[in-house]
Amino acid sequence: MVQTLTVLGLESSCDDTAAAVVRQTDFEPAEILSSIVHGQTELHSAFGGVVPEIAARAHTEKLDICVKQALDTAGLSLRDMDAIAVTAGPGLIGGVMSGVMCAKGLSAASGLPLIGVNHLAGHALTPRLTDKIAFPYLMLLVSGGHCQYLIARGPEEFTRLGGTIDDAPGEAFDKTARLLGLPQPGGPSVEVEARAGNPNRFHFPRPLLDRPGCDLSFSGLKTALLRLRDLVVLEKGGLMRSDRADLCAGFQQAVVETLSEKTRRAIALYMAESPPEPVIAVAGGVAANFAIRARLETVAVESGAKFIAPPLSLCTDNAAMIAFAGLERFRRGARDGMELSARPRWPLDQNSPSILGGGKKGAKA
Ligand code: KG4
Ligand code: ZN
What we know:
globular; 10 strands; 365 residues; 11 helices; Nucleotidyltransferase, domain 5
């Protein structure tokens, strides 16, 4: 019998409040019927980072508005849903709790089943939502809060090959921008400056490249940038436009080279399993960086794998990915009751060692 499932998804684990409706008939391509995202950038801009209490309060105020907008845009009501999916972690605990409480309320009022979703699984399953690819595929999550290599084997089966031991790359871009007086979010500002710069003028380290494995580290780059900036200021009494561009270009080049070498290693581990249709996918805001994306694509294609980067609106935090990950779990019979709890940490791969860094956006796994 043909089975069509329609799922409402809620996301509130960091600084985006989001709701979406996703529908899928059997294993046909899924359809995003609506995807509403309310960002909180301006609420946090004065503080130089996400303030958890402000984020949680804003989520509580915005969630029901988002849900109504998502249902209205889809032209549907709660009665048309088969389940409610919600991010239950990892993330900033106040925000995750806001989402879980809202979803529980909707579930209790409507009688719809409740499905808790791991936020990282939402990102990692996005290439199946956009490109309907088959398991197993290799996934690189690179954002302001996450950085890890995963082999996705099923909706709830992931093998973590490595990840950052401190900052996520997006955080490093944001800090770099702050140190150079460039606007936030830092990634796009640094990328624009870097275009006019000489990447070879300043020497930046290539962290952890001398060690085996796929772990990464980005906090040293920011320290290097601070030291190099201060040297220039000491020498010239200030930063010229060209100094700033050269610093950005050198920093970005270090990120590109580190990511490309670690990705090569992750691909080797993945390809050793002889996947029938090899795919390397990326997700996360940093994947918007042209230099990074282009280099990752080259590395993937050289290995004989297909390269997939979902559109940016689905790479960054959104609720369509949560609705879809919930739909995948629901189809396999998963159900969570009122005992569903919010989890600040929730590694996708329970067998891998925990990640050390916490970061500005809360726990990374
Ligand atoms: O995935 P995302 O929207 O949010 C989470 O971190 O979960 O990613 C945002 C991060 C920010 O740190 C931002 O500076 C970075 O992605 N980013 C970029 C670029 N665009 C956004 N980093 C480098 N280059 C870019 N073009
Ligand atoms: Zn995210």
